[in-house]
Every structure is written in C-alpha cells, then in structure tokens.
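Retry 2 of 3 after timeout on previous attempt. Resubmitting structure tokens to design endpoint.
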C-alpha cells in the first residue's frame, strides 16, 4: 500500500515549482511527504545539457539508497526526451506529461489511489520563505540549435490570468518579501482570453498592493520591449535586475546557434535600459566552445561582455544532446579548449562583479535575508548580488533589512 512519497528535483526554478505543485496534488490522494523510507520515490529530472544525464543517474541512485523499498518514478525533461528507454534504469514507471496535476492523476491510477480532497490551482506551493516563486508560463518554440528544451518542454503555454493573480494574491497576503515570476520562455507570457502580455501581467500584480517587490527569473532580449523598460523605470517595486541570455558575443556564432538577434540589437536594448536606469543589473548566460567558435570569436565575446558591463555571467561549457543540430555541426572544439575558455570567462565575470559592486560602496541598500554561511548572514539585494550582514544580530530567513557594502 502506497502511503508516503518523496520527490527529488533537478534543474531550473520551473522544475522546482512543478515538484512542489505535484506534492500538493499527491496529497489529494491521501499521500504524505516524508524525507526517507518513502513508499514512493519520484525523481523530477533535467535535460538542459547532455551532462545532466549523469546528475539524473546520481539522483536516482540517491533515491534508491534513501528509500530502499520504494516504487520509483521518473518524470521531468529527461523522461520526456528518452521515455520508456529509461525503464532500463530499474524504475517502475516513466511519465512524460509536464502538467503536475495530470502526473498526480497518472500516479494515482497506476497505484489505484482514490482522491480524498480537492486542491485549488491557486494553492501556494512550499517555499523557504525568503522569496516566493510562481510559475506563469511553460514551453518554448525557439529551437536554438544547441537547446533540448523545445523538445522536452513542448509548445508555448501560459497559465490563465485569474489563476496567476489568485496565487499571487495569496503570496501577497502571506507577506512574502519578494515574488519571482518564472517560466521557460517567460517573455512570451500571454493570457489569450484577456490578451494580457507579460507587462500587463506585472501591472495587474502590482495593483494587488502589499508593497511586495517583483522579479523576473529570466527573459530574452527580444522580449525586452519599450513597454517593459518603461514599466521598470516607473515602478520602484520591480527589482532593477534582469537575467538576459547573450550566449555569444559573435554574430557568426549567434547565427549558428539560431538565436533571433545580433549583438547590435542586444546592445541597443541594454543601452535603452541603462539610459533610464544607469545602475540596472544585467546578468547573463554564455556558452563557450560552441562548434565553429574560434579564438577570435571568443575574444569578440569577451570584448562585448566588457562593453555591456554585465554584473554576473553564468558560463556554460558547450555540451549538446544528440538530437540537437549543434551536436553534428562541423568545427567541434576540444574539451581542453572549452575548459580554458570557460575558466577565462569566469575570471572575467568575477572582475565585472567587483566593478559592479563598486557602484554601491558606502550606500545603503534594501536586502532580504536568504541564508547563513560560515556563521554570517547574507542578504539578497534588488540588484541580485548578495551582501554579508555586518551586524551581530540574529536574523530570520526572509527578513527585510538595510545593508551596506
């Protein structure tokens, strides 16, 4: 008899949200979450790079160790890509739907569980209290040549506006110190019934009151519209930070990647932001060692990165799945070349981070306590960097505080 479960999660904020939503729906069928020794272990997998396959395998091994008698289920992006081939990994069930409610129903049907309660779609998911993340969108149809996500997450889908606002209102009522909107292609959020885009959604969220700051998890440069920039400029409750993936500072490589912009367009959009808000924080993702990337292409990327003055770079060594076009492109770089470029770009990121911090020396900034490391509390600022709290007081997770560098 299945009575207890444990969910293991790899990957992005969307996966994390989906796991927490799945947890809510499984409770409808009388199941209780526990940490070890569960009757059912569910691994919500990731497939963002080929290397994540090893992480999925390790997480599966951990689930087996923690729950030796459990039935094992694989869900998530890895499951959707490889399907029933993953049954060879010694699992009992592989489910490929991405809707947590449908997943819960499939699990209940497989184990003959009956629903004992009814959960609203606006129910809050579990959170560490420092910030609340709400998923508003899923799917991607951009098909960048290196990316598995359109294959694993499928077509564009946006949550109904009333659902999003209902869940947001509950988070506001709970007085979360910050609300983060997340999605796979977040900038293309659109509620078809009301024709509400992402900027419209943010306006409606801000109208809910509560003096709660909002943040976007990421956005494509092609969706950083004049409307969105103006909204950020006029609203103090929108954190002055955007995560915008560049991927390469070479137009040649951007074409090979099938990215829908060129560096001149990217620069123009950033300049429009910084003209209105000079201290605005821009973080980014960059892939190094993409097929065809020469030393000159890499140098062009480094030069562009310095020109834009990103506040932080997430560096991804090239690692493509077999089913993506990039896997078979000519001009594959060696692992040594990729590692060297990744190291150099990370060093550049550290330098840019220090330069960005300098803007705020001796200034007081609002922050949110997000954790404690080596006996010291740290607070997240609206500009997305962490600041060590210098006082000797005890603080609570999610506490609002004024910090200085």
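Retry 2 succeeded. Sequence:
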């Amino acid at each position: 008899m299945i009575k207890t479960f444990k969910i293991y999660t790899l990957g992005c904020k969307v996966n994390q949200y989906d796991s927490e939503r799945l947890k809510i729906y499984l409770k409808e069928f009388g199941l209780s979450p526990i940490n070890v020794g569960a009757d059912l272990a569910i691994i919500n997998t990731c497939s963002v790079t080929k290397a994540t396959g090893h992480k999925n395998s390790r997480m599966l091994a951990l689930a087996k160790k923690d729950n030796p008698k459990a039935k094992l289920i694989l869900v998530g992006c890895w499951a959707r890509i490889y399907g029933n081939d993953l049954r060879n990994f010694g699992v009992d069930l592989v489910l490929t739907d991405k809707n947590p409610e449908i997943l819960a129903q499939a699990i209940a049907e497989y184990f003959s569980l009956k629903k004992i309660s009814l959960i609203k779609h606006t129910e809050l998911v579990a959170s560490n209290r420092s910030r609340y993340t709400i998923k508003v969108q899923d799917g991607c149809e951009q098909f960048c040549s290196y990316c598995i996500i359109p294959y694993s997450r499928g077509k564009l889908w946006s949550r109904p506006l009333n659902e999003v606002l209902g869940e947001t209102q509950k988070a506001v009522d709970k007085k979360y110190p910050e609300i983060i909107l997340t999605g796979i292609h977040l900038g293309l959020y659109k509620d078809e019934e009301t024709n509400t885009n992402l900027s419209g959604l943010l306006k409606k969220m801000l109208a809910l009151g509560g003096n709660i700051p909002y943040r976007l998890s990421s956005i494509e440069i092609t969706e950083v519209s004049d409307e969105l920039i103006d909204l950020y400029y006029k609203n103090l409750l929108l954190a002055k930070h955007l995560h915008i993936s560049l991927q390469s500072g070479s137009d040649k490589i951007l074409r090979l990647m099938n990215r829908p912009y060129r560096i001149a367009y990217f620069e123009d959009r950033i300049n429009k932001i910084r003209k209105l808000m000079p201290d605005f924080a821009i973080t980014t993702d960059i892939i190094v060692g993409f097929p065809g990337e020469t030393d000159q292409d890499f140098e062009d990327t480094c030069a562009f990165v310095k020109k834009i003055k990103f506040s932080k770079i997430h560096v991804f060594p090239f690692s493509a799945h077999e089913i993506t076009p990039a896997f078979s492109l000519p001009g594959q770089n060696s692992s040594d070349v990729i590692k060297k470029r990744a190291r150099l770009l990370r060093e550049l990121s550290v330098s840019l981070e220090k330069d960005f911090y300098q803007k705020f020396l001796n200034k007081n900034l609002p922050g949110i306590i997000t954790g404690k490391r080596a006996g010291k509390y740290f607070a997240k600022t609206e500009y997305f960097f962490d600041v060590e709290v210098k006082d000797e007081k005890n603080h609570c997770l999610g506490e609002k505080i004024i910090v200085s560098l």
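Attempt log closed. The radius of gyration is 22 Å.
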